[in-house]
Each structure stands twice: as C-alpha cells, then as structure tokens.
C-alpha cells in the first residue's frame, strides 16, 4: 500500500557548500565534519558539491592525478563516518576508469555503504572548458534512491542544462532532484544557475536541491527550489551548511494545481546511443 503525501513526514536536507582544496585528506576531514553537523541538525540527506577529492585552479589535470577508486582511502573515511547513521550523503568524486581517464561519479552513501552511483552523462565541453579531455561520460540513466520515504533522482552540474534528464527522472517518479555541482564563474553564469535550477524544479513539480562548490573558481550559490519554483533556502559565495525542509504535501499540492506531468504529450525521454555507436550505424 502506498503512503499518501499527506501522511508522510517532512524531511530535512542539508546543503554542505565548501571550497575544495588540492589535499584529499583535508577535503575528507571537511566532509566528515559536515556529516556530523548535518546529522546534529536533523538532516535525512546531506548534499555536497561535485569533484570533492581535489581542486586546483592552476592544474586542470588534477582530476586525473587525484582520482581514487570507490574503495580508496577517501571513500573509506566517508563510509566509516557514515556507519551506523541514517543520514544519506550525496556527492561526486573522480574515479579511474582503467584506461587513462576517469569517470565523474555521483555516489550515494548511507550506513557505511555505497547505495547508489551515477556516472555523469553530460560533460562540460562549453565556455572554453573541455571536461571530456580527462573524463569519460557515463551511459546509463541514474536510478532513483529512496530517502526518508521520498524518491530522489540525481544529476551532476552541467546535466542541469539538459531538461530531458530531469524530465526522465520525474517521469520515473522523482519527487526530489539533487544536483552536486562546481559551477564555474563567468559572465551571466550565476543567473544561468538560478534560472536553470528553478526551471527544472518548476517544469517537473519537484524539489531541486542544487549544491555548488565555492572558492576562487566557482560560484557556490547553493539553493533549494520548491515544486512551484520558490527558492526556500540559499547560500552565498562562502562555505556554509544550509538546511531546508522537503514537504511531501507541497509536492502533492503542486502536482494537483499544475499537473504538467499528467498533461504532457511527449513520451518518456530515452538516452541516445553513444556517438561512436551512432556513427558506426550510419
């Protein structure tokens, strides 16, 4: 029997915004501290930025040199800190692919185990950047994860610019979409972040939890947008731990007054074949 939205409890989410250093141990210590503080604040879910193993604005290849496997020392410390806790943690790290490049992997951790992973589909080859030089894209749509009775979908940073993925997650049942990011500064970029996050929430009548890295290169500006496009929590450009409440009743209300998912005329979005396969087929 499905539990109605009116009887489900409000779930608290924590947004752990910080500036990633080039030292993975320092970043692991920051993550463990944020996990402790989020749990103390009553959060069921902690969302952290993208690429939290290491960052150096002067060294674009650091994603290669700092990458660790999912059973590496960084994740071992995160998993150990998670053991015995109901707190769900979502973030992204770079993982070696065994072929000289890496995957950008969004990992979901709870009670000492990795309960979900997603390899970033859309690589940031835009605004003079080329993520694909070092990163290999994934080829699977991320499955939903249940957190505190809510169905949660995941996307990573540049994915936010592609409405098909968010719509697919919503059609699959997502009530919340989580977006760890390292949104790069630039002319108009902060406005893009806010407009896109708001659009993805409003057009899918779901909560959108977007957490950005702050620091010298990236904008921070983490936020939670509710299913009717209202920003209910925000961070600035400095490190912060921000809390917001996800209310199932608000989702039900939005989908009753704005039934875009029920009214849609297009089929469920599907992932295109990889470029190499498409070329070979042609």
Keywords:
282 residues; alpha/beta; Nitrilase/N-carbamoyl-D-aminoacid amidohydrolase; six-stranded mixed sheet; 8 helices
3D structure, described in words:
- Residues 11-248 form the CN hydrolase domain.
- The chain has 282 residues and is α/β, with parallel strands linked by helices.
- Helices cover 27% and strands 24% of the residues.
- The chain has helices at 24-40, 62-65, 73-82, 163-171, 189-204, 248-257, 260-263, 275-281; strands at residues 11-17, 45-47, 88-96, 102-110, 113-119, 145-147, 150-154, 176-181, 207-212, 223-225, 231-234, 240-246.
- The chain has a 6-stranded mixed β-sheet with strand order 5-4-3-2-1-12, covered by helices on one side. Strands 6-7-8-9-10-11 form a 6-stranded mixed β-sheet, covered by helices on one side.
- Strand 1, helix 1 (24-40) and strand 2 form a beta-alpha-beta unit.
- It is globular.
- The N and C termini lie far apart (48 Å).
Q: What is the typical, i.e. mean, pLDDT?
A: 95
CATH architecture descriptor: 4-Layer Sandwich
Helical fraction equals 25-40%
Order of helices and strands: EHEHHEEEEEHEHEEEEHHH
Radius of gyration: 18 Å
| Shape type | globular
Uncertain runs are 277-282
Number of domains: 1
Strand coverage percent? 15-25%
CATH topology: Nitrilase/N-carbamoyl-D-aminoacid amidohydrolase
CATH uppermost class:
Alpha Beta
């Amino acid at each position: 029997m499905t539990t109605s939205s009116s009887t489900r409890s409000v779930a608290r989410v924590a947004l752990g915004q910080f500036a990633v250093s080039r030292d993975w141990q320092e970043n692991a210590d920051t993550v463990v501290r944020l996990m402790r503080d989020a749990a103390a604040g009553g959060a069921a879910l902690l969302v952290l930025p993208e690429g939290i193993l290491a960052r150096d604005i002067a060294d674009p290849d650091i994603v290669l040199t700092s990458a660790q496997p999912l059973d590496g020392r960084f994740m071992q410390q995160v998993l150990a800190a998670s053991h015995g806790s109901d707190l769900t943690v979502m973030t992204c790290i770079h993982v070696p692919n065994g072929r000289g490049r890496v995957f950008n992997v969004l990992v979901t951790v709870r009670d000492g185990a990795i309960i979900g992973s997603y390899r970033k589909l859309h690589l940031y080859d835009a605004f003079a950047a080329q993520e694909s030089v070092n990163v290999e894209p994934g080829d699977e749509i991320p499955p939903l994860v249940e957190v505190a009775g809510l169905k949660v979908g995941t996307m990573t940073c540049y994915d936010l610019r592609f409405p098909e993925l968010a719509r697919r997650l919503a059609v699959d049942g997502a009530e919340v979409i989580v977006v760890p990011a390292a949104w790069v500064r630039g002319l108009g970029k902060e406005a893009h972040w806010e407009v896109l996050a708001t659009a993805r929430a409003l057009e899918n009548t779901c909560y959108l939890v977007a957490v950005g890295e702050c620091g010298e290169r990236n904008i921070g500006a983490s936020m939670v947008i509710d299913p009717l496009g209202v920003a209910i929590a925000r961070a600035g450009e400095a490190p912060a731990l921000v809390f917001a409440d996800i209310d199932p009743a608000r989702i039900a209300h939005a989908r009753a007054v704005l039934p875009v998912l029920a009214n849609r005329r297009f089929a469920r979005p599907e992932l295109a074949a990889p470029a190499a396969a498409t070329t070979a087929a042609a």
